[in-house]
Specification:
575 residues, alpha/beta, 19 helices, 23 strands, 37% helix, globular
Length: 575
């Protein structure tokens, strides 16, 4: 894939006759150092190193600025960073592209006033309505010091990760397979949101397209044979808890059907050259979808096998083809939770858990039904078997349960994720057409971040964020609580980090303040990354528990009374 590059603009004092000449080598080396740092520290979703492009010359005036802009446009640059160790002419050298996230690193030195350029040019950006991030090291460095301080590294990475997410989304599609599921507002796909805020297109296919492709064998039949063999050998089938269990023959047919569905949903998203060889050139192209959603309930699941297997396997970092990048597929076509998953995925390169934010359990309620009283309340995250299998927590970092980018996952870890998952015949009360639902319990001790994008009339999109941890419950307690809901679905027990105020004064308040029935759960405490990304997209954050000192937004945000005011003033990025 032709991923967007990070463009680096070395800014210099343009006065020839001694000043510029004395700074040429230092300024260009600063740009090279940052490019080397980015390439060593960041990866694209496919695992390849992030590419950087440096301007051909240092930029000391308008001619060199426009030459750089032309080079960036011709070479798929999606993120712009200006670096300078010195004073330069701000409005003549600044990046004027309104759609590319931009930042300036003004070197903290005393020989030349890089900080003065930073302040002057951020003022120009703010005056012209072109938000930019300011990066300024805490400690003074010597002019020729090639070291990038740790605090500067942190801000460079925060900016670059979010900027690349913005650039990677641009021009991609959200593919809706089916329509609105059970009146869920998030599955009412709103094209203006995708176009104006994310720079994305919307694609739509009726669920009947899956039936057509199955009946006409519009899938790679050789891959299907490989997939069904792998499924039978790696996906453990659980007990059938239905009052009227299906026959073995019907269950086997359901396995075959859901595996074919998985192949087809993937092909609908990204295409498959093998289909062209079968005479289906149009189908081979796919829909350029970076995220999709499958309606499922109820028109589909009332008579056909559910989408739980397809969604769970696609959202995972492995399948019959081995360890690979996860896809992003939203249950019930909840496009808003699909976007939430996408934001987390692009910031971490890790699979995302899709879940209902289903039940708050107070210590008193737990004690009443189990006899055991926890120290704090917790939230039961559970949905119909569509969560990524990475969410089992069977992967590890430094001996602790984790979810990792696919290139760090070992074959043993992928096997352990599969072994920790049981596939139960679908609950026929929900899914009359049968199918299979995954069941696992996430291991406790994982730092995670739950987020959700909501749409509010008169306000637009709003992001909610809750950092916290997964927890383990005593088995006998888990069993009692799990029996009270659907025990054939995957469970994550979640405790948000509390601040003592607002929506985070206690766990109940987090649950009570959540804006929808679904949430996306990402490994790691990435709330600050989400906030940085949201500011680039001009999406306000109305609920978070991120420490104030970790917030990183464009310089102009400091001039407004609130995040909401800044986002409202600037409007969507692609308006």
């Amino acid at each position: 894939m032709n991923y967007p590059k990070i463009g680096i603009r070395p800014i210099i004092d343009g006065r020839l006759g001694g000043v510029r000449e004395s700074l040429e080598a230092t300024t260009m080396q600063l740009a090279r150092n940052v490019a080397k740092f980015f390439t060593a520290s960041l990866k694209y979703p496919d695992g390849s190193a992030v590419a950087c492009l440096i301007a051909d010359t240092c930029i000391g005036g308008i001619k060199e600025a426009t030459d750089c802009a032309a080079k960036f446009e011709a070479n798929n640059v999606g993120v712009s960073l200006s670096v300078t160790p010195c004073w330069a002419y701000g409005s003549e050298t600044m990046d004027m592209n309104p759609f590319i996230p931009k930042a300036i690193w003004g070197f903290n030195g005393t020989e030349r006033p890089g900080a003065v350029y930073l302040a002057a040019t951020l003022a120009a950006h703010n005056q012209m309505g072109l938000p930019a991030f300011g990066i300024y090291g805490r400690d003074v460095q010597d002019l020729h010091d090639a070291t990038i301080p740790e605090d500067v590294k942190e801000k460079l990475l925060s900016f670059a990760r979010a900027g690349l997410a913005v650039a990677i989304m641009r021009g991609k599609s959200y593919l809706a397979i089916g329509s609105v599921s059970m009146g869920i507002a998030g599955s009412i796909v709103v094209p203006d949101l995708f176009r104006e805020y994310l720079g994305m297109r919307n694609e739509y296919v009726d669920s009947a397209e899956i039936i057509r492709r199955i009946e006409k064998k519009i899938y790679d039949e050789a891959e299907y044979e490989k997939a069904i063999f792998w499924t039978k050998n790696n996906c453990s089938e659980g007990e059938d808890f239905n009052k009227n269990p299906s026959s073995r023959e019907q269950k086997d047919k359901d396995w075959e059907y859901v595996v074919k569905m998985t192949l087809i949903i993937r092909d609908l998203m990204i295409g498959n050259d093998q289909l062209k060889e079968k005479g289906y050139g149009e189908e081979a192209m796919g829909h350029n979808a970076i995220v999709s959603g499958f309606q499922g309930q109820r028109q589909w699941t009332d008579f056909l096998p559910n989408g739980d297997f397809s969604e769970a396997i696609l959202n995972s970092s492995f399948d019959w083809n081995g360890i690979r990048a996860p896809f992003v597929v939203a249950t019930e076509n909840d496009s808003l939770n699909g976007v939430s998953m996408l934001l987390g995925y692009l910031l971490t390169n890790t699979a995302q858990i899709f879940a209902d934010v289903r039940t708050y359990w107070s210590p008193e309620a737990v004690e009443r039904v189990t006899g055991w009283k926890p120290e704090t309340g917790f939230i039961h995250l559970i949905n119909s078997g569509s969560a990524t299998l990475d969410g089992t927590g069977q992967q590890s970092i430094d001996g602790k349960p984790a979810m990792k980018p696919f290139w760090d996952i070992t074959p043993l870890e992928s096997t352990e994720c599969l072994d920790a998952t049981t596939w139960y015949p679908a609950n026929n009360g929900y899914f009359r057409g049968g199918g299979y639902s995954s069941q696992f319990v996430s291991r406790g001790g994982m730092p995670v971040t739950m987020c959700r994008l909501n749409l509010v009339k008169g306000l637009g999109p709003v992001l909610q964020i809750a950092e916290g941890h997964t927890i383990d419950l005593p088995k006998e307690v888990h069993d009692v609580l799990n029996e009270r809901t659907d025990k054939t679905w995957p469970t994550t027990w979640f405790v948000p980090r509390l601040t003592g105020t607002g929506a985070f004064r206690d766990v109940y308040s987090v649950m009570n303040s959540w804006g929808a029935n679904h949430g996306s759960i990402s490994y790691g405490h990435i709330g600050d990354r989400l906030i940085t990304l949201a500011s680039m997209l001009r999406i306000p954050v109305n609920m978070h528990n991120v420490e104030e000192e970790k917030l990183f937004r464009p310089s102009a945000w400091g001039m407004f009374a609130s995040d909401h005011d800044a986002c409202k003033t600037y409007g969507p990025l692609y308006k």
